[in-house]
Amino acid sequence: MQYSDLTTALGDLMVVVITNAASATPSNDTNFNNILPRIIDSGEQRIYRELDFLYTRDTVYEANALANQRVVDLPSTTIVLQGTNIITNPNVLSQTPSPGANGNINYTLSINTNTIGITDSNANTPFISVGQWVNILTAVGTNGYLPQSVLQGPFQIASISLNTPGVSLIYTLTGPANATGTITWANTGFRYSTVSGSAQVTATTAEYHGLSIGSIITVGVTTLLGTKTYITAGDYTVTSTPTATTFTFNLPAPASDTENLIFENNNVIAIQYLGNPLSGTKNRVEPVSKDALDILWPTDLSEQGVPKYGALVNNTTLEVGPVPDQNYIVQFVGTFRPAPMSATNTTTYLATTYPDLFLNACMVFGMLYQKDADLPQGAPPGADVTKWENEYQKSKASVLSEIQRQKGQGPNWSSYSPTPESTPSRP
To answer: Where are the domains of the chain?
Structure first.
């Protein structure tokens, strides 16, 4: 049963006139059109709450365990969280540029959006697909426009505009926060200049950096300048801003090399293309109380690493400890609410697998709206609602019998055999 079948059936069983069954407003009755989404929602939500379908148990991957942040947001459709895993050592299909090679990776972003455009022009670019995971190894977005963690770690490909393996890929990622400025075409990372005997480093950006004296910038990857001078990954304080695209900071000790405009990580701005589905190591997050987390980690950054424990703060938030030392892909296992049926989502699990149950559930609420409109004058109120409630309960009993058999809850995880609904007669 599809959406148009449901609206047609409701029109046949209720006192409405259906003019376009596939439309979001299928009836000449404006009141019916207004109540129709609530009829569908009431039927679906009642069934999902009363029956535990294997279909609604799912595994959802999210890239939302962010470095230095204790709070992890649950997927918005989570109903019951049954398990959480932190993914480490994900399967890497390819890396561009290849280790030790120079390459050309650029990113673009627009103010007040969290859409990140990536252009990867390298000889070993793979074929990509929407939903595939990438892992940005080098921290970028450190020029003042973005939160420091936005362009580092795992992201899912949101859209693709050019997919030419071995030549160029152009695609978008979705960051966790909106950009505070616009970058039209920028190489990732900084370019560094040093003078032997001086601790000062001059950093150059491709666009206006928006920094001021005292700002904190993050060097994403330890970079070798010359033969002896290292700029170690970490946070540095801006000491001056000579131009709109340059700023300075100091090393712990004077540089041993004089170098000019060396790309961060020697321009190896690596992006890893990960296997889909993921085949990394699953590190289980053991559930504990919020009090236990606060006792073990009284401050958020008292310890960093792969999270081992988690506490549900509310129905949308999980706190973990220790605090992630980098961005991680998280695997959530549990019960998730499917998208409801509508004129734009015309086929759903309930409508396809249990159309009788779904229709009966819709009719229970629908007849409350109709207020027994088709009964003769003087008939007892609620008769139609009672009739459809009885039909719903009959359908529910048979569906319950089936979903119990699906769950493997019998001996040795075999298919469960419920008590027969009737006693076979003897010959």
So the answer is: 3-54+339-404, 90-279
